[in-house]
Amino acid sequence: MNGIDERAPVFVISVAAELSGMHPQTLRQYDRLGLVSPRRTSGRGRRYSARDIARLRQVQHLSQEEGINLAGIKRIFELQDQVAAQQEELRALNEALQRMSGSGSRIFAADSSGQVSALRRGERPERRPGGALVLWRGRACADRHVGRWADDHPAGWSRSGALSAGGVPR
């Protein structure tokens, strides 16, 4: 499978079944269950990629050698996909951080869903309904206030400078 884009849908179901060591009907069942989702041609025929073949082999290994049922395998795949998406998001954030490091700007905003976006100095984050605003102060700034913390900060603010959900101190 060298030289082929691993995501290119090139294998018909009979070839995919042979490459994965399964019966074509098994591949159809796995498609119905959502374990493997091959692309479709305009005539509704299934086309499998090298990545799909690898996934079919993984299903076979997990079910036959590890004794995991198909629902468990589907959950494993969902979790693997979530981890991959989070790793990609982390990579993108790290790249953005690297780009911003050179400019000396390190200001970020996070919404209630956890979406983080970089801001330029002086730019305000977009406020969304039901969202919370979290402030962060650098270590030097927070250390100046330690001695008079209770006098200077209203209820709901923590020593880190973050307002907890519902205004309750952390």
Describe the structure.
This protein has 170 residues and is mainly α. 44% of the residues lie in helices and 7% in strands. It is built from 6 helices and 4 strands; from the N terminus they run H-H-E-E-H-H-E-E-H-H. The chain has helices at residues 13-20, 24-33, 50-64, 70-101, 139-144, 149-152; strands at 39-40, 46-47, 107-110, 116-119. Strands 1-2 form a two-stranded antiparallel ribbon.
Per-chain topology:
Layout: H1 13-20, H2 24-33, E1 39-40, E2 46-47, H3 50-64, H4 70-101, E3 107-110, E4 116-119, H5 139-144, H6 149-152
Antiparallel strand pairs: 1-2, 3-4
Helix pairs in contact: 1-3
Kindly list the characteristics that best describe this protein.
two-stranded antiparallel sheet; mainly alpha; 6 helices
Summarize the structure.
The protein is mostly helical and 170 residues long.
